[in-house]
Amino acid sequence: VDFFIYAKEVNARVALKRTAETGKLHAVVLANDLSGARLFGSSAFRDALSLASQKTASVYPGIAGPTLLLNLPPLLGALVKVFTPLFPKVVQERLRFESGPLKGVDDLKALLRKPEPNPTRDAFLADVERLVAR
After folding, report:
1. What is the spatial distance between Cα 108 and Cα 91, in angstroms, rounded to a whole number?
2. Is 59 helix (H, G, I), strand (E, B) or coil?
3. Is 23 left (phi over 0), alpha (psi -120 to 50) or beta?
4. Alpha carbon 129 to chain centroid distance?
5. Quick check: 134 and 96 in contact, CB under 8 A?
6. pLDDT at 131 > cutoff 90
7. Are 65 and 101 in contact (CB under 8 A)?
8. Which of 7, 101, 102, 108 is nearest to 53 (CA)?
């Protein structure tokens, strides 16, 4: 839980710094790749992420952009389709369930700025930009 709270603080500081530098409001987009997620595995990770979100929601209200839940396994994807209409409208607007971005990326180091040009990074950023714009 502490790590996720720390990460939110770092993201908030970066977003606020970029907002001050550019005069445009910057938000944080969360992209969670759920490839290989198990429906019946340990819930420790999900519980920690949920608790951190609950603790920080009121502390960082202005920087929260959409949350992208990417590459859900088929069974989880089917459950999402069934239950998403039951979520409050405000939650539905913030969550995006998509396939594609990060699919086939085995190591996040592939998304680093270097080497230039970096087609993997460019494709990922284009996918995220397209999803956020919807």
Report:
1. 28
2. coil
3. left
4. 12
5. yes
6. no
7. no
8. 7
User: Within 10 A of 50 (CB to CB), how many other CB atoms are there?
Assistant: 13
Q: What is the dihedral of CA 92, 77, 81, 127, to 10 degrees?
A: 50
pTM of the model: 0.76
Whole-angstrom distance, CA of residue 126 vs CA of residue 68:
14
CA dist., res. 26 & res. 28, Å (int)? 7
CA distance 36 to 70: 11
Task: For residue 71, count CB atoms less than 10 angstroms from its CB and return exposed for 0-12, middle for 13-18, buried for 19 or more.
Answer: buried
- 66 in helix, strand or coil? strand
Compute the CA torsion angle 67, 117, 21, 2 (nearest 10 deg).
Answer: 40
Residue 68 vs residues 19, 21, 29, 102: alpha-carbon distances, Å: 22, 26, 7, 11
Q: What is the pLDDT of residues 3-23, one digit of tens each?
A: 989 998 999 999 999 999 999
Q: Alpha-carbon distance 51 to 72, whole Å?
A: 21
Q: How far is residue 59 CA from its own chain's centroid?
A: 18
- For residue 80, the one-letter residue type is V
